[in-house]
Amino acid sequence: MSLMLKKIAPAVSTKDVESFNNVIASKAQKRIHYSGSSSLENRVSYAVAEKNMGTQYISKINTLVGVSSGTIFKKYAERKDNIRKRRLLYENKREFKKQKKKEK
What we know:
The chain is mainly alpha-helical. 72% of the residues lie in helices and 0% in strands. The protein is built from six helices and no strands. α2 packs across α3.
C-alpha cells in the first residue's frame, strides 16, 4: 500500500490537506447535519475562500453584497491574516524544514 502511495505522490506532505480539512470542520461541524440542503456546499465554498483568500474573504463578500463588515471585524481579520502570513514565512525557512527533518 505505501509503495503505491509513494508512486502516486512521492515526498508529499499531508499538512496542507489536514489544514484544509480543519477549515472545513470549523465551518461544517460533524455534529450538525448540513448535507440535506445547499448549506453544506455553501460552507465548503466558504472554507475554500478562507484557505485561498484568508479571513478577509468575508469583508470582500460583504462589499459585493453592499453590507459593511465593521471596523472591529476588519481589524480582527487583518490581525488573523498577519499571524497566518508570519507563520507561513517561518515554516518556509530552510532552518525550520531542517529542524522538522531532524525530529522525524
